[in-house]
C-alpha cells in the first residue's frame, strides 16, 4: 500500500487513474463519503498491490466499551489479537464490579474471530475517575486482594475472559511496591489458567520523573511480574491542555527508549491513539476544553470548512485550523502518515506490538496499513 497526499485540483477519480486502481478502493480504504470531496493535504491510503516484503509479527490489542457499534467491532476484530473490554471495577472489600452494559456479546464475537477477550480492571470511584484511595485499599489489604483475585479467576472461568489488563493510574508513591505485589499475585493466579496479565504504564522517561501519574509505576519491577505492558504513549495533547499533537513521535520515542532500558522489548506494546482533539482558540488554561473527534471526522471537518491539512515534521502529526461562528479552532488528529511513524518505532525497537486506545470509531485505513506492514498474531 502507498500513501498519497492530496494536492490542489486532485479528485478521487484522477488519483485512482494515475495509480491504475479503482476509485471504489480509494473510497473504501479512506471512508470517503458522497459527494467524495477531498482536502488539500489529506493523506490517502492506496491499495497498489500485494506486499511481498518481510514483515514483523506483532500482537495487537484494542480497548472498547460495551456500547461500541457491533458493526465497528466486527470490522476491527480481524486485525486484533486481544480485545480489552473496558472496564471492570472493584470495591474496597475486593468485590468485582461489572460494567453497567452487558458485554457477553463482545466476548462471543471476539471468540468467533479467534481474538482473546481481556478483562480490563480499573479503580474507578463513584465519580467515575481513577481513585488512588481505592488502589491503596486493595493493594495493602491481603484479605480484600485475595477476594478480588478469586472473583477475577471465577469471572474468567465462567464468562470466557482469557486474560486481565490492570489499568491503575495515579497510584500513590508509597503504594508503588504494594502495587507490584498485587500484579504479581494476579499473574500467579492467571498463570495457572494459562492466561496473560498485562499492565498499563504511564509514559515515563526516567526513574526519577515526578508527578502522581508516574511515581507509583516501577517500570523495571512491573516488567518482571507482568506478562506484557502497554505504554500509554498518548495524551500529550489532551482535553484540558493546550493544542498539540496527541502522540508526538518525538515524545513517544523518549518513552520507548526508557522503557526498553527497563523491560524486555518483547513484553512492550506501544500505545496508539485512535482519535484527535478540536480546540477552540484562544486556549485558556483552566477554562478551555477540547472536543474529542475521530480521525475520519477530523478530515471531514477540514473538507466542510474548505481548509488545508498541514503535517508537522517534528511530531509527525497532521493538524489544521478553521473558523466557525466567529471562533478559530485548532485540530490535531492521526492519519496514515502519523501511524506509519509509530509503526516504525515498533520495528526499530522490536517491540511486542501495539495497543489502541480506543477502537470505538472505525478508522479503516489504520487497520489496512497495519495488516500491510505486519503479520498479526
Summarize, please.
The chain contains 13 helices and 17 strands.
Distance between termini? 21 Å
Whole-angstrom Rg: 21 Å
Question: How many domain modules?
Answer: 2
Poorly predicted ranges (pLDDT <50, ≥5 residues)?
none
CATH superfamily of the largest domain: Glycosidases
Average of the residue pLDDT scores: 97
Structural class: alpha/beta
Strand-residue proportion:
15-25%
Total number of beta strands: 17
Total helices: the number is 13
Assign the CATH architecture of the largest domain: Alpha-Beta Barrel
The sequence of SSEs as H and E is: EHHEEHEEHEHHEHEHHEHEEEHEEEHEHE
- Please identify the oligomeric state: single chain
Describe the strand arrangement of the main beta sheet, using strand numbers.
Answer: 3-4-6-7-8-9-10-16
Task: Estimate the helix proportion, in percent.
Answer: 25-40%
CATH fold name of the largest domain, please? TIM Barrel
Molecular shape: globular
Profile the largest sheet: 8 strands, parallel, barrel
Tell me the name of the CATH class of the largest domain: Alpha Beta
Describe this structure in words.
The chain is α/β, with parallel strands linked by helices and 377 residues long. It has 2 domains: 1-50, Membrane-bound Lytic Murein Transglycosylase D, Chain A (Roll), CATH 3.10.350; 56-274 and 335-376, Glycosidases (TIM Barrel, Alpha-Beta Barrel). Helices cover 35% and strands 23% of the residues. The chain contains 13 helices and 17 strands. It has helices at residues 12-19, 23-30, 70-76, 104-112, 132-139, 142-159, 176-191, 212-215, 219-225, 249-262, 295-304, 336-348, 364-373, and strands spanning 2-5, 43-46, 56-64, 82-90, 96-97, 116-121, 164-166, 197-201, 228-231, 268-273, 276-280, 291-293, 310-312, 317-324, 327-332, 353-357, 374-376. The strands form 3 sheets. An 8-stranded parallel barrel has the order 3-4-6-7-8-9-10-16, surrounded by 6 helices. It has a 5-stranded antiparallel beta sheet with strand order 12-11-15-14-13. Strands 1-2 form a two-stranded antiparallel sheet. A hairpin with a 5-residue loop joins β4 (82-90) and β5. α6 (142-159) packs parallel to α7. The longest helix has 18 residues, at 142-159. The chain starts with a strand and ends with a strand.
Amino acid at each position: 500500500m502507498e500513501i498519497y497526499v492530496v494536492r490542489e485540483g486532485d479528485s478521487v477519480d484522477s488519483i485512482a487513474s494515475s495509480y491504475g486502481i479503482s476509485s471504489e478502493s480509494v473510497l473504501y480504504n479512506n471512508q470517503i463519503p458522497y459527494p467524495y470531496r477531498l482536502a488539500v493535504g489529506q493523506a490517502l491510503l492506496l491499495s497498489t498491490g500485494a506486499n511481498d516484503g518481510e514483515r514483523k509479527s506483532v500482537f495487537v490489542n484494542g480497548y472498547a466499551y460495551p456500547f461500541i457499534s457491533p458493526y465497528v467491532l466486527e470490522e476491527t476484530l480481524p486485525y486484533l489479537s486481544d480485545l480489552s473490554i473496558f472496564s471492570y471495577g472493584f470495591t474496597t472489600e475486593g468485590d468485582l464490579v461489572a460494567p453497567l452494559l452487558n458485554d457477553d456479546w463482545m466476548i462471543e464475537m471476539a471468540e468467533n474471530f479467534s481474538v482473546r477477550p481481556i478483562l480490563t480492571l480499573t479503580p474507578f470511584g463513584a465519580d467515575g475517575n481513577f481513585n488512588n484511595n481505592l488502589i491503596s485499599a486493595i493493594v495493602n489489604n491481603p484479605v480484600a486482594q485475595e477476594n478480588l483475585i478469586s472473583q477475577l479467576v471465577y469471572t474468567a472461568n465462567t464468562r470466557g475472559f482469557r486474560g486481565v489488563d490492570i489499568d491503575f493510574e495515579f497510584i500513590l508513591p508509597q503504594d508503588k511496591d504494594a502495587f507490584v505485589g498485587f500484579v504479581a499475585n494476579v499473574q500467579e493466579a492467571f498463570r495457572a489458567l494459562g492466561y496473560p496479565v498485562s499492565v498499563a504504564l504511564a509514559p515515563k522517561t526516567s526513574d526519577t520523573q515526578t508527578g502522581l501519574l508516574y511515581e507509583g509505576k516501577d517500570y523495571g519491577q512491573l516488567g518482571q511480574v507482568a506478562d506484557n505492558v502497554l505504554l500509554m504513549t498518548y495524551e500529550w495533547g489532551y482535553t484540558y491542555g493546550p493544542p498539540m499533537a496527541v502522540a508526538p513521535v518525538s515524545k513517544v520515542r523518549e518513552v520507548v527508549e526508557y522503557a526498553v532500558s527497563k523491560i524486555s522489548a518483547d513484553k512492550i506494546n506501544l500505545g496508539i491513539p485512535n482519535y484527535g482533539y478540536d480546540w477552540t482558540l484562544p486556549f485558556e488554561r483552566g477554562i478551555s476544553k477540547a472536543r474529542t473527534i475521530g480521525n475520519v471526522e477530523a478530515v471531514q471537518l477540514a473538507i466542510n470548512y474548505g481548509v488545508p491539512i498541514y503535517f508537522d515534521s517534528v511530531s509527525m502529526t497532521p493538524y489544521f485550523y478553521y473558523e466557525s461562528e466567529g471562533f478559530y479552532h485548532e485540530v490535531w488528529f492521526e492519519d496514515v502518515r502519523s501511524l506509519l511513524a509509530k509503526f516504525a518505532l515498533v520495528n526499530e525497537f522490536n517491540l511486542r506490538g501495539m495497543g489502541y486506545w480506543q477502537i470505538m470509531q472505525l478508522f479503516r485505513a489504520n487497520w489496512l496499513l497495519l495488516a500491510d506492514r505486519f503479520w498479526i498474531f
